[in-house]
Structure formats: C-alpha cells, structure tokens
Amino acid sequence: MSIAPKYFIADRKNWHRHLIIYLLTIIISLGLVILNPPTAKAESASSKQLESIKEVTPEIILDQNSIPSPTQQANFVTTVSKAVEPAVVQVNVSRALDGVFLPPFFGRQPGNLPSQPTLRGLGSGFVIDPNGLILTNAHVVNQADEVTVSFQDGRLLNGEVLGKDPVTDIAVVKVEATDLPTVKIGDSDRVEQGQWAIAIGNPLGLQETVTVGVISATHRFSRDIGIADKRIGFLQTDAAINPGNSGGPLLNAQGEVIGVNTAIIGGTQGLGFAIPINTAQNIAQQLISTGKVEHPYIGIEMVALTPEIKHRLNQIPNRKQRVNQDHGLLIVTVQPDSPASAARLHVGDVIVGIDGQSITKADTLQQLLDRNGVGHKMQLELDREGKNVAIAVIPQSLPLDPAYPR
Q: In b/e form, how buried is each residue of 92-105, taking b as 16+ CB within 10 angstroms?
C-alpha cells in the first residue's frame, strides 16, 4: 500500500478538469491511499526526514520466572539486557561500487590498477534459531556483496542472505554455527500502549547499546509515518533508536521480542518505529521456506470518504456522478491488467464492505487482503451510482517490477 495523488476519472472533459482541481485540494489536506505495488524507491522519506536505522538483534530463550517485573525489581532492564545481549548481533555489509574509481592522490603509479571503492554499512540482528538463523531488516543487507556477523563472544562469521522482502523490510541471514543463544519471541498482538519497551542494538557501531522507553502507540501504518512503499503496521516507541539499530530487537519487560527496530523520523526525538514480531515471524518463515514472499493486491487507488469529502465532491460543477455514501472507500483509479480491472471495478465505485464486514478505512482493506492471501476470492459490497452491487475479486501476487505503474 502506498500513497500518491491520482485523478478521479469521468466521462466529461469539462467537469473532469474541475474534479482534478478539487481532488488535488482534498488529497493535499486529507491524503490518498493506493492499493497497488510500491516502486523501488521509498517516497516521502526526505520530506518527513525519515531515516532508516540499520541493526538487528539475536533471539534468546528466557525463563519467565527468572525475569522479575518492574514492580518486583527496579533494575529489570539490567536483567533483561544481560539475558538477551548474547543473542543480539552486529550485521556488517559491504558493496563494491561498480564502475567508480577514485584517482590516486599523487597520480597513478606504473603497474598499479585504480582501487575500487567499497560502500560499507552496519546494522543489528538477533538469532531466532540456534543453528544460525538471524532476523534483520531488508534495508540492512540490500545489495550487499558481503555480509559478516559479529557476536558478543567475539566471533565473526560469514553470513548468507537467505531472503529479503522489500515490502515489509524483513530479511533472514544464515551463518554456519550451532548452539547459538536465541531470543524468546513474544506476542505483538498483546502489546499495549504505555508498556515498557527496551531496545538493544549497535547504533553508529556502538555495540550492545541498551535504551528504554515505552510503547507510544500501536498500529502506526506506513503511510502515517511517510514510508509509502511499505505495507505494514508499526509499533511506535520513545526508546532511543538511532542509525545502526535497524534489525535489532524491541523487548518487553519480560525480555521477549515484540518488534524489530526499523525506522526513525529525523529531526525529532522519541519517534522510533518497530515492525511487530508476529508480522516479522510470518515473513521470516516464508523467506526461510521459499526465499520469497507473496503479497496480495487488487490494483486500485482510493480515498477514504468522510462527510466533508462527500460534500466537496458533490459541489463540483457539472459533475455527473454523485457520491451517496458518507463513509467507505471511493475508487479513483483502477490499474490496467489488475485483479480489480478483471473484476470490472469502476472508477467512482464506493467500497462499503468486504465479505460482510463494513469498510471505512484503507488499512482495514489491506489487513483483509493480507489475511485472505493470494488467489482467495473476496466479495466486495459496492455503492455504484446509488445502487448496491456485489462483485467478487481474486487478489493476485503484488508485482515488484519498479516499472509497474503506481
């Protein structure tokens, strides 16, 4: 799911131009949601000064009885960090810059070839399997020619990227090792606003850095924080997260991983975001099994209706198609050769329900798509020019071709 301005398509040129002006005004103030494939580049990052953080954290199995709650012991953070840190790793990556050569400072010496510059980076990760499986962010290992993993005990092992998913920013790295310490996985569906949050990682290469805060919010969707090319909900925390933390674990007071530290908003303090561990685990299992992830899509762009938007649209001069619903998802674009096109969804249709469930937010539609999966029919209830219409649509796998139209 992504966000980008599009135009409402109609059958009259004159009101089409008026409609474009109205929609642009509405979109600027209220936003437009797109349910189609992302492009290769993350948009809105510069405008919101979004910085990806680069680290990952290993998994560790903790005895619940050995981790006192904050009310039982003031230094619960110390207890958690000591238990989890052995499973948190630093992920080191390097990539040669092809075709780029820097001239030697004193001129080229006879017989010497120009050196090829290498781009280096680091992030964090955590062990999820004692036989060498490490969870991290996809942006940490993206386009890496070489991956090495540093452990707390001093070991430096070569890593292989088993798979990465740019849509959710999750990757799995494999190292040749056994009996590694692993983290204990929590349940991110049970995370509540205000509970303790502990982040462990390697910000700016400072290994085993521990910060603490709370869960500031749950269900922050990617469009809310300016990551328009991702399709995921985030946990928000004020635990300090910095570049190099990406891929590291976000923990609860019991030492369980509840999220994967992923992003911060630059120029601010206390605005960090983590991928919920339930989502990360699901993606990781697919990457481990098949090396790829399928994401369902139907290929529409839409805007969530409110009484205000309805009123504005209906005030457009010479508009032939009235909006009759105060709430729902107004389709403003149907992508060619998409499941929506095949199902004959129309620009101007308002989605009011799916499989009997009322729909007022694009995020809800995306969640239902992800839950149903690729190839599973969904029944859409529509308002089409004041008439109730039911149409079946079969989601297909999201194209990842950057050339695919948004």
A: bbebeeeeeeeeee
139 in active site: yes
**Active site (annotated) includes residue 311:** no
Q: For 202-279, where are the E strands, in sequence order?
A: 209-221, 233-237, 249-251, 256-265, 272-276
**Rounded to two decimals, what is the model's pTM?**
0.73
**pLDDT > 90 in the chain, percent:** 58
Name the domain count of the chain.
2
Q: What is the pLDDT of residues 150-197, one digit of tens each?
A: 999 999 999 999 999 999 999 999 999 999 999 999 999 999 999 999
Q: How many CA atoms lie within 13 A of 404 on its CB side?
A: 15
Q: Say whether both 341 and 269 belong to one domain.
A: no
* Annotated catalytic residue within 188, 216, 246, 338: 246
Phi, psi of 365 (to 5 degrees): -60, -45
Mean pLDDT over 296-316 rounds to 93
Please tell me whether residues 189 and 87 are part of one structural domain.
yes
Distance CA 267, CA 97 (A): 29
Instruction: Report residue 27's pLDDT band, with 50, 70 and 90 as the boundaries.
Output: low
Q: Are 90 and 157 in contact (CB under 8 A)?
A: no
CB 168, CB 283: distance < 8 Å: yes
Q: Which of 1-15, 89-103, 167-181 has the highest mean pLDDT?
A: 167-181
Distance CA 48, CA 45 (A): 5
Residues 55 and 203 in one domain: yes
Q: Supply φ then ψ for residue 37, to 5 degrees.
A: -65, 150
Between residues 142 and 405, the one the model is more confident about: 142
Tokens of 340: 């929506």
Count how many residues are written for the chain: 406
The average pLDDT across 358-382 equals: 91
- HSE-up of 181 (CA within 13 Å, CB side)? 18
256 and 150, same domain (yes or no):
yes
Q: Which residues of 149-168 are buried (b: 16+ CB within 10 A; e: fewer)?
A: bbbeeeeebebebbbbbbbb
Per DSSP, what are the bridge partners of residue 305? 328
Active site residue 222: no
Q: What is the pLDDT of residues 308-334, one digit of tens each?
A: 999 999 999 888 888 999 999 999 999
Catalytic residue from among 2, 124, 139, 229: 139
